[in-house]
Every structure is written in structure tokens, then in C-alpha cells.
Amino acid sequence: MPEITRLPYDVVVIGAGGAGLRAAIEARQQGKKTAIISKSLFGKAHTVMAEGGAAAALGNVNQHDRWQVHFRDTIRGGKFLNDPRMAELHAKEAGDRVLELEYWGALFDRTSEGKISQRNFGGHEYPRLAHVGDRTGLELIRTLQQRVVQLQQADAAELGDPDAMLKVYAETTVTELVKDGERIAGAFAYIRESGEFVMFEAPAVILATGGVGKSFKVTSNSWEYTGDGHALALRAGATLLNMEFVQFHPTGMVWPPSVKGILVTESVRGDGGVLRNSNGERFMFGYVPDVFRSQYAESEEEADGWYTDPENHRRPPELLPRDEVARAINNEVKEGRGSPHGGVYLDVSTRMPAGEITRRLPSMHHQFKELADVDITAEPMEVGPTCHYVMGGVEVDADTGAAVVPGLFAAGEVAGGMHGSNRLGGNSLSDLLVFGRRSGLGAVSYLDELGSDRPTIADESLEAAAATAQAPLRREAGENPYAVHQELQETMNDLVGIIRRGPEIEEALENLSKIRERVANVRAEGGTIYNPGWHLALDLHNMLLVSESIARAALEREESRGGHTRDDFPEMSAEWRTVNLVLSLRDGRIRLRHRPVDPLRPDLLELFDREELAKYLTDAELPAEETAKEEK
Amino acid sequence: MPTERTFRVWRGGADGELAEYTVEVHEGEVVLDILHRLQATQTPDLAVRWNCKAGKCGSCSMEINGRPRLSCMARMSTFEEDETIIVTPMRTFPVIRDLVCDVSYNYQKAREIPSFTPDPETRPGDFRMQQSDVERPQEFRKCIECFLCQDVCHVIRDHEENKRNFSGPRFLMRVAELEMHPKDTEDRRMVAQEEFGMGYCNITKCCTEVCPEHIKITDNALIPLKERVADRKYDPVVWLGDKIGLRKGADTPMVPNTRPNTYPEEDTPE
Ligand SMILES: Cc1cc2nc3c(=O)[nH]c(=O)nc-3n(C[C@H](O)[C@H](O)[C@H](O)COP(=O)(O)OP(=O)(O)OC[C@H]3O[C@@H](n4cnc5c(N)ncnc54)[C@H](O)[C@@H]3O)c2cc1C
Ligand code: SF4
Ligand code: SF4
Ligand code: FES
């Protein structure tokens, strides 16, 4: 057995995206010795790819905006299945978190008054997304990265060592969480560069590992998104919430094949881009669902008027929440009105001058030019749905990010509840900041209560974790992990994708149980130093567990809502709205139970008129007739 | 129709060698796709960094036929059909394995630069900045830290001995960015010269040429910074925007204890 280094910390944050960095910054600011672990290099986490912006009701562009409106939009977008407390905290605190970034050096685009500019996005009533062109995620992660460096510089000056209180372990992958009795005691990891194993010993571990998209064939997500945090949490005894809700972003690239799935930012539509089918029709007018009918334009003139005069026009239907647009595109293609490569057309070229396009959407212009030979200032893009985001995640306490296992916390995309059945664009970046900070604080107060009563880790758990990690390298024979991965992706894409049917999900579960046997026997050729085949062999365990969780929950929920569409149960059901699906792992098997969704507080319920509530809630849940507030 | 192409790829560490592969190439693919096909079909342990596959994260830097490039943005259609494609790791940094190299030099240099420091009298939300005042530093913040400019710069490309005293174009640009931030209050001109090696740069513009973000590193960051350094009495009003008046008038020193003593013997800067 190789030497395993033990690294003692107060707080270990797994993930160096927006959520992880914000959590670590908070923990260190509160005086805790903190480690940040990341599979990729520092500053490259998935957050870097976010384009459109961070949603916060700053009211800089439209002064009517306030947190209550943001809250209402979030709940509408999530189809009333959000954890109301999380949605409330998010809407209230997002503004402060964005301003704090600016104070740490971020340079957002400006209004003429010199404030942070805000742009329109699907499902947001007012222009609300603080942004930098279409590279907001880069600005966010770079600012947090530079804030980490600034704190390290303070430690260098004061303590003589920049890594004394806050250290980044880049290209290091956690394979197992270790417990002492019921409590979290640390995280076991390998270092890519050297192949060495390390044991992070810490009473508090924060999961900020992002999403699960690599289980699907067509996805906007990178290799990092193998659902590690979801799987680590399950295996450590924590619970996952509503894993059936997977967001398919309506606009991914469809051609050339090698870039299929890469995201085309929603800002294209927010800034005026329109969707057309092969007959040249703006088909979205035909897809406005009843629940949103009163808020969206019915004619092209009305829709076009909205961009300049939003007070007197209703919104264009291209800006419906993502699930609606994705299903509409799917249907147009299915009914034979798609583009040559199986998508639909997204056009800005006829909507604004070329110069404005390159200024407002520089990286989209660049991406299409370089990767598809398409000049978006002169011709339309071809786009189609792509797996983008998972709403489901670790079940946490809203205020502290605490999971059910003592010492375990989660924030960002890996946490569940905040976005209900469908996330609004721009609500993730703000979520990372709000709940990243809160989970950092949560870990700090857990530690303070713990005092000197710290968990410990026995040598045996180290050896067991190392043996599991090395198994694929030790096998003399076995399958190539890449082949198994491909099959898993096809199963999920084809059978548990954007439109689902009961028998197909059952078939997926059968396939997955066969894949399970194959995953257990994959073989990694080569050594331990920077060996991607080995890394994939280990990641497969996580992707499989997450895929099974998604499929199990998708089979259970017999309705269609947000990021879960059942062809055999096409309606949204008021009864199912009250149900959270909670998954856990017992003796290697996934268990599923129902937990009621927390009701909206009366003051929050009042934000909606009764007519709208009646579309979502059961009669018993509706407020009494006379107390309901009439809005119009 | 797929075609068969010849790839020669660096395998192993510093003492490694080029290995030859014949591999299928499909329409629309980029070099990174081909490396992934090699992993999936011929050599599963081929080490290569990547993340976004869309030119946004700066992970997949390498040298393709001797040119520093992002492999996810290097389209196969830009090569001749019978051209052998040679893929090697970035030469300026120590190779770890195959196409992956140790880029810690860059993170080290980032840590030596005094951070953004607003006026302590202000609070979050107080800042008012015009778009025209933030545009220039925003250009520099487009940087995806691919380190291709660092790789190509001749000051360190074959001169290990200069690494201690030269931060490279990416981080000299970071200094320029902070100097141009309308709300920053420090003065890094002296450290830029004495610690970060501004004087080594002789404006060859090679860094600008390889930048995948098309940032005008030399014209917009390095030359203006050189001018500031050359004449610290220059009236800063023109490009310091409204930060004049906030300056304490003192040179900001390098952050203590951020430079390790592990660099090789150095040449003294000119
Ligand atoms: C193309 C694209 C565009 C988007 N645009 C927007 C937008 O405009 N607005 C918006 O709000 N949202 C957007 N999103 C969504 C948003 O970017 C993500 O949901 C968000 O960045 C997730 O952040 P995170 O901090 O949770 O995780 P990430 O940023 O993904 O970070 C995860 C971290 O965990 C690490 N990690 C994972 N597993 C392990 C392990 N086993 N061991 C060690 N480390 C591990 C990874 O290395 C990484 O550092 C977009 C997403 C994509 C893909
Ligand atoms: S311009 Fe200066 S920094 Fe850029 S490559 Fe030339 S010497 Fe290096
Ligand atoms: S300045 Fe350009 S070349 Fe240099 S690291 Fe940044 S993006 Fe890469
Ligand atoms: S993979 Fe992100 S820049 Fe190439």
C-alpha cells in the first residue's frame, strides 16, 4: 500500500467553482483553516463557462424590481416546487453578493448612471442579470480566485506562508468521504499529477462539485460533471432531492457533430434573437402554456415592441422558461419542421446591426465563426436542446447548507431545492454566491459547536479507500471505460432524456443494472500519473449511481413539470406538486420516499393572484377567497 | 466522409518522445476531438487537459506543429489532408506527462502582484463607473489564463533563469489592469519594473499574436505600462480616470513572503 499523507484542516471544500470558492472565502474569513479541492486547475471550474449573467434584483435598469418580484419569478419558473425558504434567501441576498464581487474587483458592464447594468433573461420580469458581455462566469470565477489570492497574501504577510490558512489543491479528485461513526471526518483523494493518495482530515466538508451532465450524450457540460458530489453524498448516508428534474437548455449547437451540445447563451434571445422553423415561422407563439398565457405576447408586433417599451407590451414567447422552449423545439423537429442538422433556427442577424451583435455577444460570434464557420451577423444559427443543469441535488437545510449527515454541507449546483422543477437562467450564478457563503458560515458554526470533540480517521478506512481507487489499475483484463461510458450516455439520452415514457425508463433501469456489472469490471491501462482512463474508470461509479437516481425518480413522478416531462402523464398535477422525492442509499440500493413540500408563507403567497395559484395548488391549499390579493 | 490522418504526439515526461498514430478524422472536428478519439480507441492513458471544448476555460493549450494554440479551437479543416500533425506540450513549462505540463509558475506569479485595493472609506455598492472607464481593463479581464502568451514569450521560453524575475505578459497585463481599474488606490509601477521584469519585454508582440482572446496585450497593456514606468511623474489623469486623488502617492511593495526560493540562479535584470 502506498504512503498516504494526512492533511488536517478545519473545513474542506470540494469544488473550486463559484459555490466552492465563495464557501472557502467565508470559512477563511471567519478564521478557519480551509482547503479547496478541485479536479481541474484553479480558475477552470465549470462556472467559467457561464455566459449570460447573475440574477439579482438591484433595480438598476428597472427601478420597479425588488426581491419579492425576483422571488415570484423564481417560484413561477420552478413551477411552485422550490424550497420556499431557499428561494426567499436567494432573492433577498443576491444583490449584496453581486455588489460584494464588485468590491473585490469585478468589472460588470455599466448603465449610463455608472451602476451595474442588467439584462433581460427568460422568466425574469425585469432586466435583472448583472453581466459582462457574454462571459459573466469568467468574471465571477476570476474575481473569486483573485479574492482567494488576496486572502493568501494577507496570510503570507502575517504568518509567513500564503498557504497557511487557505490552500488550493488543484487537479485533485475526491473519491470517498470518510466518517467517524455518524459524523463526517474527512475526504479521501488522489492527486492527478503524481498519482499520490491524500486524506483530508476535517470535521466539516462542503460539497460544491457542480452537476451531472456527463451522464447524457448531448450536453453543455464538461468532463468534470460526473455527479461526484451527488454520489459521494449518497454513499456517505445523505439524501438527494428531486433528481428527476434535469434541465435541457433549448439552445445548444447541433452542428458540426463534435460540438453538438455546446451552449448558445440565452442572452441571444434576451437581446432580441428569435426562433424560426424551416418554414420561417416564429413558432414559439404556438407554445405558450395556459399558466403563462397572460404574460406573453400574442403577435410579432407586440413581442417586438417589448424590447424598447416593456411597460406597454407583453414579453416575446422566446423568453418563456427553458423547459417550455426546449419542448417546443423538440416538437418542431419531431414534426418535420427542423433545420438540416436537426435543430431550428435562432436568428439575430436580421434583428440588429452587425456591430451591435459583435459587441453584445462577442463570444457567441467567436464560437460560431471558429467552430461552425457560421457568421451570426449574417445568417441564423442552428440550435437544439442540450442537457445543461440538474435541479435535483443534495437535500440541505436552507439557512446553513447542512445535509442530513453531521459535518456535511452542500452548495451550488450539487445542492437541491432552490430551483424547484426548473431553474431560471442567471439564478445559478447568484445561487452559488448566496449559498456558497451560507454553507461556509454553516460549517463555521458547526465547528464552533463541536469544540475539541473532533472526529478521527482510522488507518483501515484509508487503506480501504486506496484499494478501491486502485482496483481498475490492478485488473489484468476488463473492458475499456470509454466504451462503457458511451453506452451509459446513450441510455440516459435516449430513454431518460427530454421526453420520458414509463416503459422506456424501466428499460433504462434494466440497462443501467447491466452497465453496473460492467462498471465493476472496467480496466484502466497504464500507471497512476495523469491517467485519464483510470480517472474515467472511477468517475463511472458516480455517473452510474446518479443515473440510477435520476431514472428511479423519473419513473416515480407521474406528472409533467419543469425539467421532467412524461409523455404518458402530460399534465401538471396539483397533488404531485406537494411531493418532494427523497432518495437515499441503503445496503447498496437506492431507496425512495415522499416528503411534503414546505408551504409558502402567507406573505409570500400574497405575491401571486388567486387565479394563478389555482393553476398550481390543490383546492385545500388555496388561500380563502377574500384574503387573496387581486393584482390587476 | 472520414479521412485517415497521421498524428505524432508527445508521449511521456521530459525524456519522452513523439509517437505516431493513424486516426480517423470526421467533418468539423478539432485537434482535441482527435486526441479524445485516440484515448477512446488506441491509448486510453493519453494525458491531456481540457474542460469546456469551446475556447472559454484555457485548459487545452499545447503546441500544434510548433504553434502554441488551444486544441479545442484548432479545426482539422485548416490543415492539408496529407499533413502530419505534430502535437507537443507547451515548451516553456516542465512537462508532467504527454501533453500536460506543470503550469504552477503562472499561479506563483499571480500571487506576487499586490491585489485590488479600493478606498477603505467606501463600501460595497458605492462604486459608480462609466462604461468608457472600465472598457480597457475589461479587455484584459477577457483573459482565460491559457498561458499561451507565457509559453511563446522568448524571455522565458528557453530561459529558465529569467523566470524568477519576469512575470510574463499575462501577469504584466494583470498589473496594467489593476493600474487602470478606476477604483484601485495602489501604485504598482515600481514593482512592475523591479520585481516583475517589465524591462525584459522588448515589445516583440509574439504574445499578442497567440492570444486566443485577441487581447492586444502589447499595445494596450504592456506599452502603456512601460510608459508609466518610464516616467512616474507623467500626469496620470489621462488613463487613470477618476482614481487620481485616491493614490497615497507611495509605491506599493511586492507582497512579502510570496516568492519561494526555488528558482534557479538568476541573471540580474538590465
Ligand atoms: C455553458 C454554460 C453556461 C451557463 N450560463 C449560466 C448563466 O449565464 N447564468 C447562470 O446563472 N448559470 C449558468 N450556467 C450554470 C452555472 O454555470 C453552473 O450551474 C454553475 O457554474 C455551477 O457552479 P458550482 O460552483 O456549483 O460548480 P462548478 O463551477 O461546476 O465547480 C465544480 C467544482 O467541483 C470540482 N469537483 C467536482 N467533483 C470533484 C471531485 N470528485 N473531487 C474534487 N473536486 C471535484 C470541480 O473540479 C470544480 O472545481 C451555465 C452553465 C453552462 C454549462
Ligand atoms: S511583447 Fe514582451 S511580453 Fe510579449 S512576447 Fe514579446 S517580450 Fe514577451
Ligand atoms: S492574455 Fe491571452 S494568451 Fe495570455 S493567458 Fe490570457 S488569454 Fe491566454
Ligand atoms: S477546452 Fe476550454 S479552452 Fe479548450
Automatic annotation (TrEMBL), chain A:
Substrate binds at residues 249, 265, 423. SUPFAM superfamilies: FAD/NAD(P)-binding domain (SSF51905), Succinate dehydrogenase/fumarate reductase flavoprotein C-terminal domain (SSF46977), Succinate dehydrogenase/fumarate reductase flavoprotein, catalytic domain (SSF56425). The active site is at residue 322. It holds the Pfam family FAD_binding_2. Residues 485-598 form the Fumarate reductase/succinate dehydrogenase flavoprotein-like C-terminal domain. NCBIfam families: PRK07803.1. Its cofactor is FAD. FAD binds at residues 15-20, 38-53, 228, 388, 413, 428-429. Residues 10-429 form the FAD-dependent oxidoreductase 2 FAD-binding domain. GO terms for molecular function: steroid dehydrogenase activity, acting on the CH-CH group of donors. Signal peptide: none annotated. This is Fumarate reductase/succinate dehydrogenase flavoprotein subunit. Keywords: FAD, Flavoprotein, Oxidoreductase.
Automatic annotation (TrEMBL), chain B:
This is Succinate dehydrogenase/fumarate reductase iron-sulfur subunit. Residues 249-270 are annotated as: Disordered. Belongs to the succinate dehydrogenase/fumarate reductase iron-sulfur protein family. Its cofactor is [3Fe-4S] cluster; [4Fe-4S] cluster; [2Fe-2S] cluster. GO terms for biological process: respiratory electron transport chain; tricarboxylic acid cycle. Pathway: Carbohydrate metabolism; tricarboxylic acid cycle. The keyword 4Fe-4S applies. It comes from the Bacteria. InterPro entries: 2Fe-2S_ferredoxin-like_sf, 2Fe-2S_ferredoxin-type, 2Fe2S_fd_BS, 4Fe4S_Fe-S-bd, Beta-grasp_dom_sf, Helical_ferredxn, SDH/FRD_Iron-Sulfur, Succ_DH/fum_Rdtase_Fe-S. Residues 5-91 form the 2Fe-2S ferredoxin-type domain. Gene3D superfamilies: 3.10.20.30, Alpha-helical ferredoxin. SUPFAM superfamilies: 2Fe-2S ferredoxin-like, alpha-helical ferredoxin.
